[in-house]
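Narrative progress, year one. The postdoctoral researcher (J.K.) led the effort to move from monomer predictions toward full complexes, under supervision of the PI. The following entry was the first complex the group processed end to end, covering 531 residues in total.
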Amino acid sequence: MSDPIQRDPVTPPKQTLPFWPHYVLSELIAWYVILGLLVTLSAILPAGLEDRANPLLTPEHVKPEWYFLSVYQFLKVAAVFSFLGSEAPRLLGIAIPGVLLAMLFFLPFLDRGTKKPARQRPVMLLVVAVTLIVLIALTLWGQYS
Amino acid sequence: MTQSVSSLSNTPATRRGFIQFLLGFSVISTVIGMLTPVIAYLLPKNANANAGVPVDVGKVETFQPNTGTIVSVNDKPVIVVQSKAGGLKAFSAICTHLGCVVSWDARKSSIQCPCHDGFFNPVTGAVMSGPPPKPLTQYEVVVKEGKVLIGKVLG
Amino acid sequence: MTQSTRAFPRRWFDATMDWFDERIALRQLIAASLHVVIPRRAHTYYLGGITLFLFASQAVTGILLSLYYQPTPESAYNSILYIMNQVNFGWLMRSVHAWGANLMIIFCVLHLLRVAVQGAYKKPREITWMVGMGLLFITLGFGFTGYLLPWDQRAFWATTVGTEIASAVPLVGEAIRDFLRAGADVSALTLSRFLGVHMLILPASLVGLLLVHLLIIHQQGLADPHATEEQ
């Protein structure tokens, strides 16, 4: 969508917005909303506490936090690589996420195309969408298995 | 009336002033709203929920005549004295002068504060000599089934 | 409007600023700091700023929790119970810290997705992206180390399983696992180690990288997602 200001022939396009106070004010409003969200969530669902740690008794469903669950689940899924050898599942289970993370880290050097609006970069959008779907699927799988 | 209101709201300076007042008010109330839980969080709690419940401090035989023994009651020092004059008594062992822990002076048969040589009466806890401004707080003592129990504060 | 006709707080404020101006050119410093180029079409959705706010909230609630927390296997659990049940607003501080941890990771990832979709990581912003990835790793490290501290069943076993993953690395895997645990098992030493990392190493690293992240943003301004930059 193009900016209406830009099509205005009389007034020259104003390309930038002042950081202070315009951007800062919007940012502060966003912070205010998040503060409200934090306090509301805490009041509705306060942090829980299970039984005291017992090194001699493993509870039934041990899982890492949700943000590590996809990697944890992938490590289980990696059993399909067993046809490559007995050590392959463990190795690939950690190597593949590692390589993907490294690729993400060096993304600016892998994708060197010129900057274009998001809609003109379908490959990148597809990669992001597929990554997200796989991560969410692995997380849900890990949660409910 | 109506006129004055409309003329007020049409003055840019006043409108701006009003908005600034509202903004300042909101900012200050938010800051107060955030600081209140933080300050309340930092305030210490009076942990003595058990105060008044009798605490077992040992068998009667442990408290021999002409002795004073320091025992811990709810994490506070208490001196249990067995004197000829008054029998088994218990006092707070915290000197009312500067908070040192008192001890038993067998020679004088009285409670002594080692810091500034204050002496207390082993029967009433009253100040006999020295700088302490107030008598020691006395606790209720109950002997039950051969055990000494320290109860609530007397007086 | 002259100086003398101004209202009291404003006049007092101006005088204070003048005092600092004479010495360290404070107004100039503030004006320079507040000058960041924001293209009108740059839609940030305030995600990075929200992550920053959540970090500040984590710092405040974390410091407050550390004032009552006792980091030994014997007393950690009870000190959490004490915070939740006895201390005024203790439940609020711990709950805000726990929710804030989850939200911080969510907003970190959303921020990353936004930058990825808009292509804002492209030249000249490669360093900002990599520093940002470092900040994400540190945030995940905060989550991993903080999870053990309550010393309940979930904490203990999640850490046991989590550190066990490291042993999948060939050759040095078990050494890494034992290094993380400060021994062969999750123990009192693991708790001390995780607490030290959670309260000292990670906060210091995060603040350092964050300053670099913000400094580069300040130098370059925000990316305009709709245009190739000429400069």
